[in-house]
Specification:
- It comes from Aspergillus bombycis.
- Keywords: Membrane, Transmembrane, Transmembrane helix.
- About 30% of the residues lie in helices and about 25% in strands.
- The chain has 14 helices and 26 strands.
- The strands form five sheets. Strands 3-2-11-10-12-13-14-15-16 form a nine-stranded mixed β-sheet. Strands 7-26-6-4-5-8-9 form a seven-stranded mixed β-sheet. A five-stranded antiparallel β-sheet has the order 1-17-18-19-20.
- Helix 2 packs across helix 3 and helix 7 crosses helix 8.
- The chain is globular.
């Protein structure tokens, strides 16, 4: 018997405060009492000389920077370069002053010039390693900046209070501009509000605390310029008064050392880092870790199962969008046994629709639509793409193909734009990736659509990262593919071996003042 058509609502609904992000984090009562005021909450895995910042120290510095940046309310601020632990203060201080922030990694000259001309920031906070690049970038725009050290902006005024923004501005006006991963097309600039980001943090913390927690220390290695790091590396742990470990970049050796020395209880890492940890941390001491959280790509259940067997803690999956935060997450009170991405986070609704927008029944596959009160209002300077992401009745088109079962567990089956026509039907890139990933010498694979001359349709091409010391070659792989994989899953646009897959978030970062 076919299930009825379904619009699924989260089983949880929670109140969301409407306030400034800095006030939300720093002026609320602690949610736990496991940390004394003297305990450092922000730790560094990179700098052994850094003693860490306590919560009160972070609040004092953030408030002092916000006070010193009061004239920037409503103005554009760009944080440019490789992060260090002082970027936490810079970001939260500028947000606390009411500025609109954009967090940019260092990129090539042309991209930097183009993006800065587009954003026209009043202030540019620059990481020390990127300072030498800035004069050349700004000379292309015929602008000579005035330099000052960021600490010169600190104003320790006891009478300063966070700007009181009206509810309309907190919900609608941008606080942070984030570059999307490009999974719904080309990368775009999503404008996120104070209210929307606070809602995202509250969703995650409510979900996380369905399971009883004790003294928590989080280590987050999501891309430091994306939504995952913002939520799991900054907003959620600081709001909850959890310890949070900053680690720039990644290597297995440095990561394992940080876990053994700093003893995190919860890890948050994208798929490619999880794969490295599975391959190269057998024997490392991960006994402090009580959970791993991963996402950013399709996660086969075998990876989560392998993590639990290797390190003894559950591996939970999260799934979402830069534009709206995390939409789905595993239930921390339940040990998942298949490839579900979990259930809806609080305050969300979702449905599955066909190509005509008709709602499908449970267990039927189509595009996942979301209703999310924390979603962005628009893509910056891109009204066409903004209109395209919303349906006529206000639902958000995620671009994910998936389904929901009778227990309201959700499953991702592919990307709508990554379907390939084969023998009159369709097959998704994810299914091809699943088939290829069983090869014992393949660490990571991504399949993308490629247009070839004289072909009427896009064809699949595989980019493969082989295991260390592997002897696998493209020719050997193609022989294996023809022997082991159904013909409809052949990578008909070829295969290319690479040292590493690029992170999906594209790094895109005028008259401006230079602060470093």
């Amino acid at each position: 018997m076919q299930s009825s058509k379904a619009i699924v609502s989260s089983r949880f609904h929670i109140p969301i405060p409407c306030t400034n992000l800095a006030e939300y984090i720093f002026d609320s009562e602690p949610k736990n009492d496991y940390w004394s005021p003297e305990d450092p909450l922000l730790l560094s895995a990179d700098d052994p000389s850094f003693p860490g910042y306590t919560f009160d120290q972070m609040k004092t510095l953030t408030k002092a920077l916000a006070c010193g940046m009061q004239e920037s309310e409503g103005k554009q601020v760009v944080l440019y370069g490789y992060w260090n632990y002082n970027f936490y203060i810079a970001l939260l201080g500028c947000l606390g002053a009411g500025a609109v922030c954009y967090n940019s990694p260092p990129i090539h000259m042309g991209g930097s010039v183009s993006r800065l001309e587009s954003l026209k920031p009043e202030y540019l906070f620059v990481g020390p390693e990127s300072l030498e690049d800035i004069p050349d970038i700004l000379s292309q725009m015929a602008h000579t900046p005035r330099y000052e050290h960021w600490s010169s902006r600190l104003d320790f005024n006891d009478e300063f209070s966070w700007p009181k923004l009206c509810d309309q501005r907190l919900k609608a006006a941008p606080a942070l501009v984030l570059t999307t991963s490009g999974t719904t097309g080309n990368p775009k600039l999503a404008e996120r509000s104070h209210y929307g980001l606070i809602g995202n943090a509250e969703q995650l913390l409510y979900r996380y605390n369905l399971k009883k927690r004790e003294k928590e220390i989080w280590l987050c290695n999501f891309f430091q310029y994306g939504i995952g790091f913002l939520l799991y590396g900054i907003l959620a742990p600081l709001k909850a008064r959890y310890g949070t470990i900053f680690m720039r970049g990644f290597s297995v050796e440095r990561y394992a050392k940080a876990v053994e020395q700093l003893r995190p209880t919860s890890l948050h890492s994208p798929k490619h880092i999880l794969q490295e940890l599975l391959a190269h941390t057998n024997g490392a001491d991960f006994s402090s870790v009580r959970s791993m959280r991963t996402g950013g790509a399709y996660i086969p259940y075998a990876m989560c199962d392998a993590w639990e067997k290797l390190h003894g803690s559950p591996c939970e999956v999260v799934c979402g969008m830069t534009e709206g935060g995390i939409h789905f997450a595993s239930d921390p009170t339940v040990l998942e046994t298949d490839e579900t991405i979990g259930e809806l986070l609080p305050n969300l609704e979702a449905k599955v629709v066909d190509n005509q927008g008709r709602v499908l029944a449970k267990n039927e596959t189509g595009e996942i639509y979301i209703k999310n009160p924390f979603f962005m209002r628009r893509y910056r300077n891109n009204p066409e793409e903004t209109k395209e992401v919303f349906s006529d009745d206000g639902w958000i088109k995620t671009g994910d193909l998936g389904k929901v079962n009778e227990k309201n567990r959700w499953y991702i089956c592919g990307r709508k734009k990554d379907l390939f026509k084969v023998n009159g039907g369709h097959i998704s890139a994810i299914l091809i990736e699943q088939a290829i990933s069983v090869h014992p010498e393949i660490l990571e694979v991504v399949v993308v659509p490629v247009a070839l001359p004289n072909e009427g349709e896009f064809l699949p091409r595989a980019y493969i990262v082989a295991e260390r010391n592997s002897s696998l070659t493209p020719d050997l792989f193609l022989e294996w593919m023809e022997r082991e994989i159904p013909s409809e899953m052949y990578t008909r646009a070829g295969v290319e071996f690479v040292d590493a897959l690029p992170i999906s978030v594209v790094s895109i970062p005028y008259q401006c003042q230079m602060i470093y």
